[in-house]
Amino acid sequence: MEKDKERWNKRYTEEEYPWKEPSKIVREFYNLSRKGKALDIASGLGRNAIFLYDKGFDVDAVDISDVALGRIKKERPEINTIQADLDIYNIPENSYDLIININYLNRRLIPQIKEGLKKGGVVIFETFTLKKGKEYMQPENKDYLLRPNELLHLFIDMYIVFYQEKDYVKPDGQRAFISSLVAIKNCDYFPK
């Protein structure tokens, strides 16, 4: 944990972080959720947490970086910040109307995301996906990337509102491939 915390703190302190605007998928689909409690997993500097707070949600922002969380608190003191190593953090059951997970993958959290949602709760999930070709982002550890159609299969027991895999150009100009999903837990359209 300490190594990851130091790396992210250094990044948020010394680098100009390219993502400033709320994610397009969050802007487009947040309104499917009741205005209630929201969780932003791996919130970073809080672009999505702040957006949700400004739209009327009671927001928990969880991240490993105390530097990033400190910036969120400075900008929106009402947001509940939780400093945690997401490799051991547990999402409380039946607690959230909306859970977002953007540009982060920890497969251990998938069942907890589902359990953490209240009935009718919405998950918005978007992250990088493996795509062959040297022009695409290729991290050293491929475990940090979804496989094609994996995200769809991980949430297939929920009502899928939106699913897409597509090319994406990151703010730093690097080409990537992303998977995007919006799903509802135990919604009236999806029999139990």
UniProtKB/TrEMBL annotation:
Keyword vocabulary terms for this entry: Transferase
Membrane-spanning segments: none
UniProt xrefs under CDD domains: AdoMet_MTases
InterPro entries: SAM-dependent_MTases_sf, TehB-like_dom
Xref: SUPFAM superfamilies: S-adenosyl-L-methionine-dependent methyltransferases (SSF53335)
Protein name, UniProt field: Tellurite resistance protein TehB
Tellurite resistance methyltransferase TehB-like domain sequence ranges: 20-119
GO MF, one annotated term: transferase activity
One Pfam family here: TehB
Organism listed in the record: Persephonella hydrogeniphila
Signal peptide: none
